[in-house]
UniProtKB/TrEMBL annotation:
This is Anthraniloyl-CoA monooxygenase. It holds the Pfam family Oxidored_FMN. It comes from the Bacteria. Residues 142-330 form the FAD-binding domain. SUPFAM superfamilies: FAD/NAD(P)-binding domain, FMN-linked oxidoreductases. Its EC number is 1.14.13.40. It is an enzyme of class 1 (oxidoreductase). Gene3D superfamilies: 3.30.9.20, Aldolase class I, FAD/NAD(P)-binding domain. Residues 733-764 are annotated as: Disordered. One of its GO terms (molecular function) is NADPH dehydrogenase activity. Residues 394-729 form the NADH:flavin oxidoreductase/NADH oxidase N-terminal domain.
Length: 764
């Protein structure tokens, strides 16, 4: 069997729809790889018609261009301007962060380079010419590259195949230019009588800069921009940001106010037609250029056509290679976009923290790599946060009620389904004891059920008998005696309509084959089509349920827990009252959000009264149901305010799991924006959860002011000593992460095989 690569597919005739950078670069690469190819590019506009002014490309993209086409790279390099700094101006204070490394050039210059390269290679460029429909081209050409932009006619003509989703967002923006070069990438915030406006500016030549003005729709309308003539718009924008522009004017390139549209497609190819660049995907300008993604698409498409034996497999390989990269970029872009949409939340932050928050908004720049780029700036942010010298943010103490946690790491509640008759046994002692020894500031139990019928599964732990309380006291004693300084918290809950199911590994959310118990819920709605239909609770049945929580809380206090969390998330009983998708009641406990809050607040008040006053109480909520018609982020803020008004010391902000058909937007730290909003809109301390997996993420979220504590689940299953290892990896040795005496010999990373063999010094 030969190891030789498969022959490249016979692609003799290529049609490219759209003469933007992505389409032109794809044409040049495909022609360079096979000069015999006949390649035609259709562009409906003139050669120098373009949208916007400057283009920013990363070093990674430039490296790919250099490797694939040194001629194009050399031409671009001659035209690039480079700089390292980012300036953030907020409330008359400017903070500068260095070491970032940008390269930019004018969009017209980029197009001119690509036009010249295409002509030199023999590509047929047809300007001011509408392309024939993609379906017609597909019959006459071996490959059709649809690079026809965000408003792609090709995508719309075959929407049944590509299945696009186009989402419009809350801000209006306009691309303008200034006739001088900023000396840094500049973000400036203006608080006007109409609302907040922001400037994004960067140089793209020795004497020109791109200037993007952005604001929320309601601010744009209140300021009168909706009715302003183009000249008036430009003059007013220049006046608002006169200091940043040194009193100079702005100019337009047929610029108009736009609403950013995020484009996602289920498929990128249809037969021999393939989408590229903005036709396939868009990413908000605040994290970089769509041109960057389009150029990288072109590189990948050309490579896959060389590597695969036929067009269908080449297009499949192209999509498989690019889709994860694009999805990651779009997640980062969405985080950045939302940050600017929610900018008013952060205006009260100290200027340096505000700057750090802006720099880390997309989660691609983190505390650790910002420290590598600019240690001076990052150290100043840490000092403002209150970090003692040499102490990472995650190892600064935090006080909840009368409890001071030695660090900001929480072992998140994780159902173990390993109790017998609700009694925690040796497994729980070892499981929770190991995490306590692992250095976290707060270790939480799984959801502990307040009654036998309130269990999720037969393996769920409880606090509805004295035997269970005594078993929990054994675990609490171990935590306090063997890991002094570790706080131990209990999460109390009732399964509601999600009860009477199999152990997770036997079939999650699947009803028991036998031995089922009756379920109760706010409304008679089963969780899934296979689930048992719960009994809709009558108002006169609610007091006894409330007393089950109270009795469990009293037992928890006697067991020695330091903190109590009330579980009002994930579709369990109290969460079921909060969500409009699961609460269809018409009495005093259903309807408006205020009414849906009534019973959870009654339970909270009763538990708060029973729980010792010096010990804190938190509440876990689902801040969104990830389903149409469910709990919204606005609702979550109101819910958090209500619990805080009743005495909650912090809100543990999770999401989803309320209905079985929810559609979460999974990704790194994907739930943290909800905690961020609650904290910065209400001032209530929050615990952030949701795919927070690295100590770098923890430090970043804390320093940016997006959370007060970080709860991690799966990382603590992978590594019970996650917190201690995080301390070791950051060279921290201090009171916030003490190694247990028997483990101190292991507080340094074990040695491994040598990897630093001497390199050759001479060539003969």
């Amino acid at each position: 069997m030969s190891d030789a690569p498969a022959a490249a597919p016979a692609v003799h005739r290529v049609a490219v729809i759209g003469g933007g950078p992505g389409g032109l670069y794809a044409a040049a690469l495909l022609k360079r790889l096979d000069p015999a190819r006949e390649i035609t590019v259709w562009e409906k506009n003139a050669p120098d018609d373009t949208f916007g002014f400057g283009v920013v490309l990363s070093d990674e993209t430039l490296g790919g261009i250099e490797h694939a086409d040194p001629v194009v790279y050399a031409a671009l390099r001659e035209r690039f301007v480079r700089w390292d700094d980012i300036d953030i101006v907020h409330r008359d204070t400017r903070h500068t962060s260095g070491g970032h490394g940008f390269a930019a050039l004018g969009r017209r210059a980029l197009l001119a380079v690509l036009h010249e390269r295409c002509r030199d290679l023999g590509v047929d460029l047809r300007f001011r010419t509408e392309a024939p429909p993609a379906a017609d081209l597909a019959t006459a050409y071996d490959l059709v590259v649809a690079a026809d932009g965000v408003h792609s006619a090709t995508r719309e003509a075959h929407a049944d195949v590509f299945r696009p989703a186009v989402t419009s967002h809350r801000c209006r923006y306009i691309w303008l230019a200034a006739d001088f070069a900023f000396d840094a990438f500049r973000f400036e915030i203006a608080e006007t009588e109409h609302g907040v406006m922001q400037l994004h500016g960067y140089p793209f030549s020795a004497d020109e800069s791109t200037v993007i003005i952005e604001m929320r729709e309601e601010v744009w309308r209140a300021a009168g921009f909706a009715d302003a003539e183009p000249g008036e718009t430009i003059d007013r924008c220049a006046k608002v940001f006169a200091e940043a522009l040194h009193g100079r004017g702005l100019r337009s390139n047929n610029s108009s106010w736009l609403t950013f549209r995020t484009v996602v497609n289920d498929r990128w190819s249809h037969g021999n037609t393939v989408l590229l660049g903005d036709a396939a995907h868009t990413a908000h300008f605040s994290i970089g250029s769509g041109t960057k993604l389009a150029v990288e698409d072109a590189l990948a498409l050309a490579a896959c056509l060389q590597e695969q034996p036929d067009v269908p497999r080449a297009l499949a390989a192209y999509e498989a290679e690019r889709r994860p990269v694009v999805a990651s970029t779009q997640r980062a872009a969405q985080a950045s976009l939302q940050w600017f949409e929610e900018l008013p939340l952060y205006l009260g932050q100290p200027p340096r923290q505000f700057a750090f928050n802006l720099l880390t908004r997309s989660r691609r720049v983190t505390h650790d790599n910002l420290r590598l780029r600019d240690e001076r700036f990052t150290t100043a942010v840490e000092r403002d946060f209150g970090c003692p010298e040499g102490t990472p943010p995650m190892f600064t103490p935090f006080t909840l009620g009368g409890l001071t946690l030695r660090n900001r790491v929480v072992v998140s509640p994780m159902d173990m389904y390993s109790a017998r008759d609700g009694v925690p046994g040796d497994f729980h002692l070892v499981h929770l004891g190991a995490r306590a020894l692992g250095g976290a500031g707060l270790v939480m139990t799984e959801m502990v059920c307040v009654s036998e019928r309130g269990r999720i599964t037969p393996g769920c732990a409880g606090l509805y008998t004295d035997e269970q309380a005594e078993a929990w006291a054994r675990v609490a004693d171990f935590v306090h005696e063997q890991s002094p300084g570790t706080a131990f918290g209990v999460q109390l809950g009732h399964a509601g309509r999600k009860g009477s199911t199999k152990l997770m590994w036997e079939g999650i959310d699947e009803p028991l084959d036998e031995g089922n118990w009756p379920l109760v819920a706010p409304s008679a709605l089963p969780y899934t089509s296979r689930s048992q239909v719960p009994h809709a609770l009558r108002a006169d049945e609610l007091p006894s349920l409330r007393e089950e929580f109270v009795a469990a809380a009293r037992r928890a206090a006697r067991s020695g827990f330091d903190l109590l969390e009330l579980h009002c998330a994930h579709g369990y009983l109290l969460s079921g009252f909060l969500s409009p998708l699961t609460n269809r009641r018409t009495d005093a406990y259903g309807g408006s959000l205020e009414a849906r809050l009534r019973f959870p607040l009654e339970v909270f008040d009763a538990v708060r009264e029973a729980w010792p006053s010096g010990r804190p109480m938190t509440v876990r909520v689902s801040a969104t149901d990830w389903a149409e018609g469910g709990t919204t982020a606005d609702d979550a803020v109101a819910i958090a305010r209500a619990f805080a008004a009743h005495g909650a010391d912090a809100i543990d902000v999770s999401t989803g799991q309320v209905v079985s058909d929810d559609a979460p937007a999974y990704g790194r730290s994907y739930q943290t924006p909800y905690a961020d909003r609650i904290r910065n809109e209400t001032g209530i301390p929050v615990i952030a959860v949701g795919a927070i997996s690295s100590w770098d993420d923890v430090n970043s979220l804390l320093l940016a002011g997006r959370t007060d504590l970080c709860a991690l689940a799966r990382p603590h299953l992978y590594d019970p000593h996650w917190t201690l290892h995080a301390a070791a990896e950051q060279n921290y040795q201090g009171p916030a992460a003490p190694w247990p005496h028997p483990y101190r010999a292991g507080s340094r990373r074990p040695q491994t095989g040598r990897t630093d063999a001497p390199k050759p010094r001479l060539s003969l």
